[in-house]
Automatic annotation (TrEMBL):
InterPro entries: DUF1508, YegP-like_sf. This is DUF1508 domain-containing protein. Residues 9-56 form the DUF1508 domain.
């Protein structure tokens, strides 16, 4: 996997996380005026991934099910 830094139609920086076969896994939720801010956001994603919890919304128990469905994978 790798991150790509690009510019959107407004000339602001965005990032994409891509698999080795070229498919996009994730795209930045916002755009950045400065490239350094975009690179910082990539660093935050990279540092958060190992500790990120998974919220299972398929339990059918609504909000409480989602809260209790949090787990590390």
């Amino acid at each position: 996997m790798h991150f790509e830094i690009d510019k959107n139609s407004q000339g602001q920086y965005i990032w994409r996380l891509k698999s080795n076969n070229g498919r996009t896994f994730a795209v930045s939720g916002e755009s950045y005026h400065n490239k350094a801010d975009c690179e910082h956001a990539i660093g935050l994603v990279k540092s958060a991934v190992p500790d990120t919890l998974v919220k299972d919304l398929t339990t059918g128990a609504g909000i409480l099910g989602g809260l209790y469905g949090l787990k590390k994978m």
